Amino acid sequence: MVIPLSTPATEGALLVPYRAPLDVPHELVEHVAWLLYEHHRARNTRWRRLGCFQQALLAVVHLRKNETFAQFGAGFGISQATAWRYVDEALDVLASWAPGLHEALTGLGEGDHVIVDGTLISNDRIRADELYCSMKHRKHGMIVQVIDHPDGTSLWLSRETPGGTHDLIADRAYQGAGATFRIPYYHHCEQSEHYQQFNREHARLRAPGERALAQLKSWRLLRRARCSTRRIGTIVQAVHTLLTCSYSSEKRLTAEAVQKRTYPGPP
Q1: Successive 10-residue mean pLDDT values, the chain, 267 residues
Q2: How far apart are CA 64 and CA 219, in angstroms?
Q3: DSSP 177-225
Q4: Which of 3, 134, 197, 209 has the most CB within a 10 Å radius?
Q5: pTM higher than the cut 0.70
Q6: Where are the beta strands (DSSP E) in the chain?
Q7: Cα–Cα distance for residue pair 118/1, rounded to 1 Å
């Protein structure tokens, strides 16, 4: 199957689809398919070009591989506009299941601690906009605040803010967070052994947070987003749902059942 690619730069070119593995659990795609199935049933959705499982796979491929809509849409036999519409719907469904701040912190004991950090989601559509330029990273993008459990699990991800926003996080580049936050000391090498030991212990406690950010960035769309800055928050929440969702055997359709799901045609 060959699908024409109609863009101003490559008008008349052809896209040739090919098979490729996706490094995510099969159960994860099934779980997303179940959420889409429930969403379609609640809205009494009519016939779709792709079934729930294929639409879920489409969205996961988009987040994981960060290909253009024309590229991965060709592999599913759909147009660029249809791929964008299906992915946009799936991201909204996933983002609606992301836990809120109160829900994420429920269950923590009085003496427990969490790791607060921030990460930049770079974006290539705002080069000329100074508001979105992060001087710390020397890049344009959006800042997302992250709260992680000490075991490295992401508990909560904030909405996006412009890259130029001062993100008050618990590392030594940002001061003034107050007594609630524990931050390392500046110029610890010039200070006594006590301060140096404190910074080493602090780095050890923050290490799981760095691993959580690395796991978040394993979804390649969050390394360099091509979308509007207003959609980055939805994408982050959708990825958070994928990282934290559980697979319930009682509420999970098999891949074959979801993939073959048919909707009633027009009356």
Answers
A1: 50 68 89 93 87 94 90 88 94 91 77 78 67 73 82 82 64 49 60 68 72 85 84 90 64 46 38
A2: 4
A3: --TTS--PPTTGGGS-HHHHHHHHHHHHHHHHHHHHHHHHHTSGGGTEE
A4: 209
A5: yes
A6: 3-5, 13-15, 115-123, 133-134, 139-148, 154-157, 161-162, 224-225
A7: 44
Q: Give which of 265, 267, 241, 244 is closest to 36, Cα–Cα.
A: 241
CA distance 141 to 174: 19
Q: How far apart are the first and last CA of the chain?
A: 32
Cα–Cα distance measured from residue 148 to residue 155, given in angstroms and rounded to the nearest whole number: 5
Q: How far apart are CA 139 and CA 125, in angstroms?
A: 12
| Residues 6+ positions from 229 with CB-CB distance below 8 Å | 123, 125, 126, 132, 142, 160, 162
Alpha-carbon span 1 to 18, nearest angstrom: 9
For the record, the structure tokens of 152 come out as 């490295």
Q: What's the rounded Cα separation, in Å, for the pair 143 and 162?
A: 6
Q: What is the DSSP letter of 31?
A: H
Residue type, 9: A
**What is the rounded distance in angstroms from the CA atom of residue 245 to the CA atom of residue 141?**
27
Q: Residue 124: name the closest of 163, 165, 80 by CA.
A: 163
Q: Which two tokens stand for residue 242?
A: 């994928």
